Amino acid sequence: MPKSCNTGDATSIKSMQTRILIVEDETAIREMVVMSLHREGFEVQEATDAASAGIAIADKIPDLVLLDWMLPGMSGVEFAKRLRGDEMTRELPIIMLTARGQEADKLSGFDAGVDDYVPKPFSVKELIARIHAVLKRARGFGPDEILTVERLTLDPVSHRVTIGDDQIKIGPTEFRLLQFFMTHPERVYTRGQLLDRVWGSNVYVEERTVDVHIRRLRKLLEAAQYDKFVQTVHGTGYRFSVKQS
Ligand code: CA
User: Fold this and answer.
1) End-to-end alpha carbon distance in the chain
2) By C-alpha distance, which of 6, 117, 114, 116 is closest to 60?
3) How do strand 4-5 and strand 237-240 relate by DSSP bridges?
4) Helical pair 76-84 and 50-59, crossing angle rounded to 10 deg
5) 13-139 maps to which CATH number?
6) CA distances (Å), origin 100, targets 68, 122, 174
7) Cα(23) to centroid of ligand 1, in Å?
8) Cα 54 from chain centroid?
9) What's the gap in Å between 30 CA and the centre of ligand 1?
10) Which residue, 32, 96, 125, 176, has most beta carbons within 10 Å?
11) 72 CA to middle of ligand 1, Å?
12) Distance (Å, rounded) from C-alpha 18 to C-alpha 63?
């Protein structure tokens, strides 16, 4: 069964909201990668085959999939094609883990639509560098990059939010909420999805807690009239958008 874990490591907050699914049947490799990704501050889901990976993705969509080529049942390549054919996962970044140079050769000439591939054996350092590179390409920004929307900026390293020259005094939850919104703009999230992504999947709080923090966040942005970015989508949830709703 897929499981998901949260890291509570405050020093790695920049990666905390990034969830990676590893699909790998070799326990030793999977555990090594999981441990390293946790240390790097990622949230990690695990699956040992395509079927359980499909269930994990339907439950909680990851930001990136590390996909082993050789899996019991459906191969990694077939699964990658399936993900590319599905509206929900068409854009999901995939890094393929390949066992032999031969597979890597095949893959490079093969249109499975994966974003990158890493031949085994690989160093964890190399893998993490590839993950950051693929995420950066997919999102258009890196993990340490300052996020900017008009005069609003969020610095994930110094933990500062400013509007123009004014630093905003922001609570940790509002900071995480704003960081999530600024890194995932123009998409509607339900309260449940926001709880899952911002508060973490192992935290149990009521959905109306989201409304409380949305209200606080809007209040902080009000002075510059940037509260308009945090839009209520009636009957669904919230969206961070620079367009008029
Ligand atoms: Ca394998």
Assistant:
1) 40
2) 6
3) unpaired
4) 30
5) 3.40.50.2300
6) 11, 11, 46
7) 9
8) 17
9) 10
10) 96
11) 7
12) 6
CA of 69 to the centre of ligand 1 (A): 6
CATH 1.10.10.10: which residues of the chain? 147-240
Flag whether the pTM goes above 0.90.
no
Rg (alpha carbons) of the chain, rounded to whole number: 19
Task: Give 31 Cα–ligand 1 centroid separation in angstroms.
Answer: 13
Angstrom distance (rounded) from CA 48 to CA 93: 19
Distance CA 217, CA 205 (A): 18
pLDDT digits (tens, 9 = 90+) for 57-92: 988 889 999 999 889 999 998 999 999 988 888 889
User: Which residues of the chain form CATH 3.40.50.2300?
Assistant: 13-139
| Residue 161: CA count within 13 A, CB half-sphere | 20
Note residues around ion ligand 1 (Cβ under 5 angstroms). Answer: 25, 68, 70
Residues 21-61 have pLDDT tens digits of: 999 999 999 999 999 999 998 999 999 999 999 999 988 88
Q: Which class is domain 147-240?
A: mainly alpha
CA of 98 to the centre of ligand 1 (A): 8
Name the residue with tokens 């269930």.
Answer: 55
Residues 206 and 78: their CA atoms lie apart, in Å, by 39
CA of 96 to the centre of ligand 1 (A): 11
